[in-house]
Design goal:
about 325 residues, Rossmann fold, seven-stranded parallel sheet, three-stranded antiparallel sheet, binds ligand FO1
């Protein structure tokens, strides 16, 4: 079983490469739920939806989230009733949130809901939320404490980042099978996701960080920072707000105490020495995922770095 720790769009694109190389049945994704938020009384879980829609071929590839060619009639009517519309929920996307919220109200866990959704979407890989308890990523800024979606989407990352908090994490438990799946995995891959609010939130759930030390397989991370900047999203603002270097080296420092191999882009080859000085062997390759073949090639390199050559068809 290959385990992938995943956040949003970068992780979904990495998974599009991995499923070309490895049968979906051999993949379990542990997905960040710190971005989850209630909108209009509905439980929206962006990172699991992005992974599911992308692998089901439904995602709006341009945006990286939401459903391709979705309509927004419900949102328009909600605005007429005086609701906010800074977070765009398409009509078909809303079906996911309505279904999820209904099942949760009936007493199902987030794990059970996610399992039901991925089966209905025809996916064979497992998708486990990092926790069935609420963990909510908040950004401490100069204008106060903001939910991550308010910081990123509503206020467009304009506020100075002073701290990042994972509200509820200390009371949260890893979702069922998360710890055992990490322990038994033939490899644990950390997708090119935001190291602070996507991977960091997964690591904030008690037990997960420690289990990465005990994992039988190798732990391999792909840097989401290339040439000193993220491909997408606010990782640079969050890392610099926390006083970290915005580079593949800065990312390696985030993961250093459990990481076996760091995979960085060719543009960052000059950082190899500094990362290896942390005691982390480094693989340099193309990590810019432009199309199917480059996604598959990256997945191959990562599996090779994890010592799984036998899986390389
Ligand atoms: N991101 C935006 O920048 N604007 C949006 O209106 C927006 C809506 C949205 C709806 C559903 C969904 O699953 C994701 C959505 N996102 C939107 C992306 C989301 O804020 C981030 O991609 C994740 O939370 C970070 O990984």
């Amino acid at each position: 079983m290959i385990v992938v720790l995943a956040g949003g769009v970068g992780a979904a694109r990495f998974l599009q490469g991995l499923v070309q190389i490895v049968p979906q049945e051999q993949i379990t994704v542990i997905v960040n739920t710190g971005d989850d938020r209630d909108f209009y009384g509905l439980h929206v879980s962006p990172d699991s939806d992005i992974v599911m829609y992308t692998l089901a071929g439904l995602v709006d590839e341009k945006q990286g989230w939401g459903i391709r060619d979705d309509t927004y009639n419900t949102m328009q009517q909600l605005v007429k009733y005086g609701n906010e519309d800074w977070f765009m929920l398409g009509d078909r996307d809303l079906a996911t949130h309505i279904h999820r919220t209904r099942l949760l109200r009936e007493g199902k866990t987030l794990s059970e809901v996610t399992e039901s959704l991925r089966e209905r979407l025809g996916l064979q890989l497992r998708i486990l939320p990092m926790s069935d308890q609420p963990v909510s990523t908040h950004i401490q800024t100069s204008v106060g404490l903001l939910h991550f979606q308010e910081y990123m989407v509503q206020r467009r990352c304009a506020d100075e980042v002073q701290d990042v908090l994972f509200a509820g994490s200390s009371a949260a438990k890893p979702a069922p099978e998360v710890l055992e799946t990490i322990r038994q995995a033939s490899a644990v891959l950390i997708a090119p996701s935001n190291p602070i609010v996507s991977i960091g939130s997964i690591l904030s759930v008690p037990g997960i960080h420690d289990m990465l030390h005990e994992a039988h397989g190798m732990v391999v991370a792909v840097s989401p920072i290339v040439g000193g900047a993220p491909i997408k999203g606010p990782a640079d603002k969050l890392m610099s707000g926390l006083g970290m270097e915005v580079s593949a080296l800065g990312v390696a420092r985030c993961y250093r105490d459990f990481l076996d191999v760091m995979v960085i882009d060719e543009q960052d080859a000059h950082l190899t020495g500094a990362i290896e000085d942390l005691g982390i062997p480094t693989v340099v390759t193309n990590t810019i995922m432009r199309d199917g073949p480059t996604k598959a090639a990256l997945a191959r390199e990562v599996l090779r770095a994890a010592g799984l050559n036998d899986l390389l068809q």
